[in-house]
Design a protein that fits this description.
It is a single chain. The chain is mainly β. The protein has a single domain, classed as Immunoglobulin-like, CATH 2.60.40. It is built from two helices and eight strands; from the N terminus they run E-E-E-E-E-E-H-E-E-H. The strands form two sheets. The chain has a four-stranded mixed beta sheet with strand order 4-1-7-8. The protein has a four-stranded antiparallel beta sheet with strand order 3-2-5-6. The longest helix is centred in the last third of the chain and has 10 residues, at about 110-120.
Length: about 120
């Protein structure tokens, strides 16, 4: 669910299999959280979820791969992409995970605007 007062990014899976997102903190690859995005579905994630402001000296890795098939390939999402884009489309093309960023207006990315859109539907 989108946080009300944060800029959120919509992670949208356009591939026909579920994608898994794992967030770890270095050094040591300590797991922070993970979630699965179903095929054709989406999840919201915000920069605040990464807690970078508290641990600036410990970078965060955001890893994306096809669930259950890590050997098919994996890729990283930069934390700056979470902060700067409205939507990131995740797909699997030519034996690689692709991420297509879509810039958007600042207000359309706020959590309470996303919540209002859901209520209006």
């Amino acid at each position: 669910m989108a946080k009300l007062f944060s800029r959120n990014v919509k992670l949208e899976n356009v591939y026909d299999r579920p994608m898994k997102v794992e967030v770890t903190r270095d050094p040591g690859k300590f797991p922070m959280f993970e979630f699965v995005i179903p095929s054709g579905g989406h999840k919201y994630m915000c920069y605040e979820d990464l807690h970078i402001e508290y641990n600036r000296d410990r970078p965060v890795n955001i890893l994306v791969y096809v669930e259950g098939s890590r050997e098919m390939g994996e890729t990283n999402i930069l934390p700056a992409d979470i902060r700067a884009n409205e939507k990131l489309e995740l797909n699997y093309l030519n034996r690689a995970i692709t991420i297509t960023p879509t810039k958007g207006h600042f207000f359309s990315r706020l959590g309470f605007i996303i919540l209002l859109k859901r209520v209006a539907q």
